[in-house]
# Entry
Amino acid sequence: MARFYRLAAYIIGMVLFISAVLVSGVRAQQGSDSPLVKQGAELFAQNCAVCHGSQGQGRIGATLAKNWPSIRPDLEIKATISNGVSGSPMPAWSQANGGPLSDSEIEAIVAYILTWESGQPYVYVPEVTATFRPPISPVPDVQGDPNKGASLFDQNCVVCHGPNGQGRIGARLSKNWSAIRPDLEVKSTISNGVTGSVMPAWSQAKGGPLSDNEINDLTAFILSLPNTASTEPAPTSSAASQPVSDIGSLGGILLTIVIFGLIVGVILLVQRPSEK
Ligand code: HEC
Ligand code: HEC
# Structure
């Protein structure tokens, strides 16, 4: 009889333990650090932060770190991202509407946006992966260092103008500048922005983040871009090709199997003396 109770206690313990492992695995899938949310954070940083702020606090775009009154905020947000907001700078992002994002990428972004509502936002730390650029020689008659300008461009402008200035949401910059002093024209556009468009003003005088020297560097970089319209296709987002890894749940299952084996082993060991 004692043996029966001991065995029962082991089995109950085992069942409790395995459920705990499984539940924690499921939590990890849905929690703020799940692979889905990480993917969403990355996509958000690449595509949305420029208008909505890195923490969804709002800039040119609306504040997204807020409580969503809808009953199914996930569906509402997904629809807005997919279709855009007509009459505003908010573009449509779904491939069905000519945008760059797949359905599952939009769902990942929605999962990330909703972590702000729960008050447990996933903190995205961008890897510093500067676009590789060969050294650029100084542009004649243009102030500023095009190499410094290149890294400023990677940080601030690529999201709208594309890594080679080929244009995306923003205008093509690898082109023939018809002005007599293209340097002055480009510099003034960067400093002041373009009213009535999403191109913000970048100079500190206009409330932007960049110093006069930095704007000179950017101008030099832009004027170093080839002025023939290049035919290369716009690069697809790198995150798009990354498979969502499921290592979290795989680890949970492996752990469960190992622990199951250990428990069975212990039961067999404990059983053996009484068998004699
Ligand atoms: C070029 C700037 C711009 C970019 C880039 C942009 N948005 Fe927006 N977004 C806006 C503006 C402006 C609005 C407000 C539109 C309105 O209601 O007038 C908006 C509105 C929204 C809303 C609705 C907010 C609400 O309160 O209903 C969501 C959700 C949203 N954006 C998500 C995104 C996501 C996700 C991305 C990236 C995939 C993105 N946006 C990229 C400018 C932008
Ligand atoms: C939120 C998207 C966005 C960002 C970020 C952005 N731009 Fe723009 N930019 C635009 C748009 C849109 C236009 C076209 C405006 C128009 O003429 O309607 C534009 C126009 C320009 C032009 C004028 C092009 C021409 O043909 O006259 C220059 C130069 C320029 N941007 C430089 C920059 C630089 C440099 C940065 C980074 C410091 C930057 N932009 C960041 C959206 C953006």
About this structure: Residues 2-30 form the longest helix (29 residues). The chain has three domains: 2-30+253-275, 35-125, 146-224. Residues 35-125 form a domain with the Cytochrome Bc1 Complex; Chain D, domain 2 fold (CATH 1.10.760.10).
